[in-house]
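Note to self: keep these together.
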Amino acid sequence: MARRPLSPRRSIGHALLGVLLALVLTALGASAGLQASTRALLQERAQRQRWEALQHLLNAVEMGPAAAQGWGARPPHLLSDGSPYTLRVQRSSTLSGEPAAGEHYSISLRWTDPAGAEQVLTLRSFWYAAPRLP
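Structure:
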């Protein structure tokens, strides 16, 4: 038995269905691509924040506990992207056998990353105020 050709109405309906299906698939692909791009940008911003926080901590360790304590008392502190952070200097007791003029301390920096999670970066150091050689 021979097949009859599709009626004009049916062929238009099939064409419209094909176009709608192509539009839906294109929109889903674009949405997935946009989400992936957004996620990558947020991860890059979080990585820049961590790098900048580490630089602030290294500067604070270089200044020593007394200077870092004074620096931490002057809010507001902002990362380059405008995110606020707090700096905390905590002193520890010195151990026996170490120079009397030195002290153990830790410096912590807290901020909120682009995803909304609180991040803490801490460096522990020993400070001994000795004259520098030229």
